[in-house]
């Protein structure tokens, strides 16, 4: 018998865990910092509430409607067609995403271990130099990558209820609590108001066409939509759970965490005279600076990093799960064996990204390191493409009666909301993605 989530809250926490990780906590602050702060945040919220929510509902409908993992789901709902390519794109995309995501997860693990042993927060510490020394060490980054993937393999091999769901249910609430503590300290620092204004007072003159593309890509990245991860997660979902309500809960939690991340980072950035355009290392440089100002800062920082590590893991679980489930759906292959093989292959694939700041720092792809190029390809090209194809599939190929049934199951939502969702998926999602791509290509000029 196919596994199912044991409860609605278990599914929501697992889905939120898949969404709330590096996307909201690590990537959002530095991408927002490089693209105008508040203006970027506002565009991100609009994209998330309109397009991201609609996409999340769509993936939930496809997954529960088919009761299959991503590739088999499209094959089941559209037999004798090429729509299964959406699922295959999802598996490929998750593979590429996990190849650089696990590198950052390794950084978080290394920082967690260093903090627990008192090697991070010190008087007169040079945090930018510390981050540079960690990421420029081939040995350290590869150890971090290996350990991060090992934890993924151990959890995914246990399955849905005993692995993913149990892990998420307890640790996600703790992450929120420690995030709130960090925000309170950050916004009470001298000079914090400049950072708050940067994050909450929009200046649209700072937004470019590429910035809009980043905001769209971030909304997909942060919600884990576009690669059919949520198709696989919702395939384990029972009939008593409302899809629109669950999706709305995940979206609101994600926006809230992004807000907390901005309020934790940007006031501190300006209070300590740093630049918000620092890039991927922003989180690892600012957080120690803030915690150093708190009594028992090392203890709190260690706890926060451990919880952040967990949030990072819960996101990576969904990426590895879609890969593993694609090869175990038939029941002919052992989940444990496939998980271990997948983990080993992911480690090999992650090596170039792990060495992007050390041995391979001079190797560039269109001016970007392997790490940055993979990130750009996944977040700004493949995720929107996957979302575009999913929108076309669910509106024009999937059985309309099944779509309506899954949307309305276990809720009393009016036809207005159903028609609104269909309008967004039919017109707004594909048109927005096309316009953003066209703008990126410069067809409409600068």
Q: Secondary-structure blueprint of this entry?
A:
Blueprint: H1 8-19, H2 22-34, H3 38-66, H4 70-77, H5 84-116, H6 127-135, H7 138-156, H8 160-187, H9 192-200, H10 209-223, H11 229-234, H12 243-271, H13 282-291, H14 297-328, H15 335-354, H16 370-396, H17 400-408, H18 415-440
Helix pairs in contact: 1-8, 1-12, 1-14, 2-10, 2-12, 3-4, 3-9, 3-10, 3-12, 3-16, 3-17, 3-18, 4-5, 5-7, 5-14, 5-15, 5-16, 6-13, 7-14, 7-15, 8-12, 8-14, 9-12, 10-16, 10-18, 12-13, 13-14, 14-15, 16-18
Membrane topology: Multi-pass membrane protein
Keywords: Membrane, Symport, Transmembrane, Transmembrane helix, Transport
Transmembrane segments: 9-26, 38-62, 83-110, 139-160, 172-200, 212-238, 250-274, 299-326, 338-357, 377-395, 423-444
Description:
This protein is mainly α and 446 residues long. The model has no long low-confidence stretch (mean pLDDT 87). The chain contains 18 helices and no strands. It has a single domain (8-440), classed as Hydantoin permease. Helix 14 (297-328) crosses helix 15 (335-354).
Throw out a few tags for this protein.
mainly alpha; transmembrane helix; transmembrane; 446 residues; 18 helices; 0% strand; Hydantoin permease; globular; single chain
């Amino acid at each position: 018998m196919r596994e199912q989530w044991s409860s609605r809250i278990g599914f929501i926490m697992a889905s939120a865990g898949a969404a709330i990780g590096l996307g909201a906590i690590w990537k959002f602050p530095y991408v927002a910092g490089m693209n105008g702060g508040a203006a970027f945040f506002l565009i991100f919220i609009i994209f998330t509430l309109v397009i991201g929510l609609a996409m999340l509902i769509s993936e939930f409908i496809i997954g529960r409607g088919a009761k299959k993992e991503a590739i088999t789901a499209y094959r089941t709902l559209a037999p004798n067609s090429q729509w299964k390519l959406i699922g295959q794109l999802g598996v490929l995309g998750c593979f590429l995403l996990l190849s650089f995501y696990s590198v950052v997860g390794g950084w978080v693990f290394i920082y967690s271990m260093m903090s627990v042993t008192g090697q991070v927060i010190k008087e007169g510490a040079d945090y930018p130099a510390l981050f540079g020394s960690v990421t420029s060490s081939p040995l350290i980054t590869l150890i971090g990558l290996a350990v991060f993937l090992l934890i993924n393999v151990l959890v995914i091999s246990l399955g849905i209820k005993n692995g993913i769901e149990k892990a998420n249910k307890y640790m996600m609430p703790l992450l929120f609590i420690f995030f709130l503590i960090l925000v309170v300290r950050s916004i009470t620092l001298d000079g914090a108001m400049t950072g708050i204004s940067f994050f909450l007072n929009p200046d649209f003159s700072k937004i470019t066409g590429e910035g809009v593309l980043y905001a769209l890509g971030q909304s997909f990245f942060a919600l884990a939509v576009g690669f059919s991860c949520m198709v696989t997660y919702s395939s384990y979902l029972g009939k008593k759970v409302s899809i629109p309500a669950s999706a709305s809960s995940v979206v609101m939690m994600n926006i809230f965490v992004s807000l907390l991340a901005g309020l934790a980072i940007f006031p501190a950035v300006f209070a300590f005279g740093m630049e918000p355009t620092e890039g991927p290392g922003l989180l690892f440089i600012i957080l120690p600076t803030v915690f150093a100002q708190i009594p028992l800062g090392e203890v709190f920082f260690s706890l926060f990093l451990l919880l952040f590590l967990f949030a990072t893991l819960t996101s990576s679980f969904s990426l590895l799960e879609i890969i593993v489930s694609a090869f175990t759906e038939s029941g002919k292959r052992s989940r444990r064996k496939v998980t271990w093989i997948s983990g080993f292959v992911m480690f090999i694939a992650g090596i170039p990204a792990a060495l992007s700041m050390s041995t391979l720092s001079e190797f560039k792809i269109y001016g970007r390191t392997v790490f940055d190029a993979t990130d750009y390809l996944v977040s700004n090209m493949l995720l929107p493409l996957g979302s575009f194809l999913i929108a076309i599939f669910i509106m024009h190929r999937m059985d309309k009666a099944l779509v309506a049934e899954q949307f309305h199951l276990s809720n009393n939502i009016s036809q207005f909301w159903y028609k609104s969702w269909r309008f967004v998926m039919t017109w707004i999602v594909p048109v927005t993605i096309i316009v953003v791509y066209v703008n990126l290509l410069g067809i409409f000029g600068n």
